[in-house]
Amino acid sequence: RKAKVPINYDGLSDAWSDHLGGAFSDCPSVDMAEECVSGRRDMIETNQCTMIPFQKTDDDEVKQLYRNHDVRRYLGGIRTEDDLQSIFDEMHSMNEEVNWVIRKKNTKEFVGLISLGLHHDGNFHEVSYQLLPIWWGKGYGTEVVYAVLDYAFLTLNLPKVGAETQAANIPSRRLLEKVGMREEGRVIRFGEEQVIYSITYK
Predict the structure, then answer these.
(1) Distance CA 150, CA 106 (A)
(2) SS3 12
(3) What is the dihedral angle through the alpha carbons of 154, 159, 164, 170, rounded to the nearest 10 degrees?
């Protein structure tokens, strides 16, 4: 089915249907939301992007993110080849998190990676994302985060979605606020001040 937009999220009243165009299957109930995340491999489409479940054939392109100093500036720095092999093995085998490779719809160019999984504290699901710098400032990040919120609320029936970013990462914080998330707290994690954002579905 088509995504049901416009949507009334807590803290977000403006319609954003121009960003979305995905077809999904339904999770049967709110009580089963946790189980519905497990093993999901749905593809999502937006106006400009296709979001395809991360596969081993995507490894070489996704490595670009983890080797880019600008991308990793607020994400713990770049990773070694040994680190990446371990990270990717875990990502390919886990069922409790969904990872999508983002591509431009028309050209199939690699844009980045976006994920939906349990937050560090285990109290809610969070969206996280990494985009190559050549795509920054062009609306792709906002569009794919909107799409994941749509998927989380309307397909998985999750009651709340959060995100965590370094306090110093102003562009990421602006993106999260643009999609309707609001700051709910701060923690020191990985040696840095982190801001926790969230949004709930009415």
Answers:
(1) 22
(2) strand
(3) 60
What DSSP character marks residue 152?
I
pLDDT beyond 50 at 15: no
Check residue 95 and give its pLDDT: 75
Q: How many of the other CB atoms lie within 10 Å of CB of 170?
A: 11
Give the count of beta carbons closer than 10 Å to the beta carbon of residue 85.
13
Q: Show Cβ contacts of residue 170 under 8 Å, excluding neighbours closer than 6 positions.
A: none
Residue 24 has pLDDT above 90, yes or no: no
Contact 118, 126 (CB under 8 A): yes
**Spatial CB neighbours of 156, under 8 Å, sequence gap ≥ 6:** 27, 33, 36, 37, 40
Backbone angles phi, psi at 127, to 5 degrees: -100, 135
What is the edge-to-edge ordering of all strands in the sheet holding 125-131?
A: 44-45, 49-53, 98-104, 110-118, 125-131, 160-166, 192-200, 182-189
* Token reading at 15: 């319609």
Q: Which residue has the tokens 């680190």?
A: 83
pLDDT digits (tens, 9 = 90+) for 90-137: 999 877 899 999 999 999 999 999 999 999 887 899 999 999 999 999
- Which residues have C-beta within 8 Å of that of residue 135, sequence separation ≥ 6? 111, 112, 141
